[in-house]
# Entry
Amino acid sequence: MKAFIMTDLEGVSGVNGRSDGIGNKIINNEASCRLLTEEVNATVEGLVEAGVEEVLVVDGHGGSNSISPEHLHPKAMLQMIGGGIAPVTHIDAGCDVALHLGTHAMIGVADGFLNHTFNSHAVAHMELNDMPVGEIAIEALVAAYFGVPTVLVSGDRAACREAREFLGRVETVESKVALSRYSVVNRSPSRVRDELRETARNAALNRKSCPIKKIPPPYVLKIRLMCPNLADTYEMRGIKRLDHQTVLLESGDFVDLWAQRNGWAPGVHGARFPDLRR
# Structure
């Protein structure tokens, strides 16, 4: 059995953040990265207890420099996200389960700690087929594209709620409760790690009870940007512009749609990485 873990940082217990004017800034970065690594290790321990033989961990926080390679569980492989030409997916059909650790709620959620949608300096709102979505939904849909169920999501209370509302049947581990975007009550990191270990084990063992989220094509992704200059960039790539700050991406293939959002022209990502086509 193979497990895939996508990580973020804002939803880890003990992470401390502030406003940098528009977006978010983590101010205890060294401690935060250590705490994330420990949450990943606890999760891997639970997966191994369930019989998982291979674990791919993606350092998904901005800059992809939030997990300590030297302190990572020996059963885990670490993938870091760099620049240049690369596929927009990190998961494939060879995985049996997907997990998302350290998550946060989508932009605009009142009780979401450090809430944003992919870029706290750029995105004001995102909708997929007229449904508001954030990072949790997108990552789950990328996994679903390859037939992989998302079995566990951890993060603050708002993130866990968002995961359950979108996925229905999914295990969650709550790390903290936000009072506002920048004020939060953290649960004990050691208690969270204990719950992650146990919940990951049970989620892997009961993976067949987790449905795979299906949204039928065609796909329409509407992004309202914070600044019209950002919409200019999309328009120059050939993306449809709805108004001064809103763009519209369309495709019959979900990974192609997401590739367009990440800078690929329609159809080019699938031609460059044909093994990711279904």
User: Anything to note?
Assistant: Residues 219-276 form one domain. Residues 50 and 205 are 6 Å apart (CA to CA).
